[in-house]
Design goal:
binds manganese (II) ion, binds adenosine monophosphate, globular
């Protein structure tokens, strides 16, 4: 049975592995179809594609855009995008500049909290590329320095929404992200809908807004969701007429509870999003609607 993982990160955003290493690990884990979906970046796609070819692994060029919806941070995955599309490239440059700016401001706040050296620390963890610095890198730096006891603790104490080193971001609005992905020939997928701090009513509003903006699919099966939530998300996808996606959201071996290619199956009745790129001969047994 082909294994399909449509949400992963490399060192080109906040993942730990180089794109080629990620592809090799995915192949070792039995993954046949992999999407590289770095945060606000397609920089790793060429390296990943080159590494995938000789392994017979199919690589879908992708990304995960940071967006705002009604003041909430919401992620939109784009799958099958043309990584050279001009408006996408321009939008990504804007996001990257904003990210670099925010990184410095987060570091200033941490300095004021008597945590000097945060910028240099996070920057080193981001491979020395200022526009790639993410909160993940700050959390790793805080953890390595013994200032928090876990990566999650860094978000709870400093980096999460409303915490002392939270710097609000001018990410693009949700409809712009969907439009950019579609203009670049990709499919827009609402990322991990179960992970936003939204009531069920608001989550349905988000899904409606995403669909109204041209969104085509939503993640239903992700590694960190409990079976009840996966079933619920499957129902929401079917009700909204959205295709269903799946993926690990793998970031690297430093998060050992997440494995490439490992997450629950899609619930009954969902339409797999990968039918857009593959036929039965490509992926035997994976295109029928899941029956349970
Ligand atoms: P950024 O894009 O810089 O805002 O960083 C967001 C990234 O931080 C996400 O993609 C996750 O990898 C990570 N992250 C966000 N919230 C948490 C959390 N509560 N605990 C651990 N990691 C988190
Ligand atoms: Mn991340
Ligand atoms: Mn995300
Ligand atoms: Mn992700």
């Amino acid at each position: 049975m082909p294994l399909i993982d449509l949400h992963t990160h490399s060192r080109c955003s906040d993942g730990a592995l180089a794109p080629a290493e990620l592809v090799r690990k995915a192949a070792e884990a039995g993954v046949n179809v992999l999407a590289l979906t770095d945060h606000d970046s397609v920089a790793g796609v060429a390296e990943a594609a080159a590494a995938a070819e000789p392994l017979g692994l199919r690589l879908l060029p992708g990304l995960e855009l940071s967006t705002m919806w009604r003041g909430h941070s919401v992620h939109v995955v784009g799958l099958g995008v043309d990584v050279a599309h001009a408006s996408l490239v321009e939008g990504l440059a804007r996001q990257a500049d904003a990210r670099g700016e925010r990184g410095r401001r987060i570091a200033e706040r941490l300095e004021k909290l008597r945590l000097p050296g945060a910028w240099e620390g996070a920057l080193a963890l981001a491979g020395g590329v200022p526009n790639r610095v993410s909160r993940t890198h700050f959390s790793q730096w805080l953890h390595a320095g013994g200032h928090v006891s876990s990566l999650q603790g860094a978000f709870d104490k400093y980096l999460g929404a409303g915490k002392p080193a939270d710097v609000p971001m001018p990410w693009m609005e949700l409809p712009e992200a969907v439009a950019l992905i579609r203009a670049a020939g990709g499919t827009a997928v609402l990322a991990h809908p179960g992970r936003y701090p939204l009531t069920r009513t608001k989550l349905r509003l988000l899904i409606d807004a995403f669909r109204a903006a041209g969104g085509e699919a939503m993640e239903v099966a992700t590694a960190t969701e409990k079976p009840d939530m996966v079933r619920y998300l499957g129902q929401l996808a079917v009700a909204a007429g959205l295709d269903a996606s799946q993926g690990s959201d793998f970031h690297g071996p430093h998060m050992p509870w997440i494995h490439l290619g490992r997450f629950p199956g899609l619930p009954a009745g969902c339409t797999p999003v990968w039918r857009r790129w593959f036929n039965e001969a490509d992926l035997p047994g994976q295109l029928a609607l899941p029956v349970g």
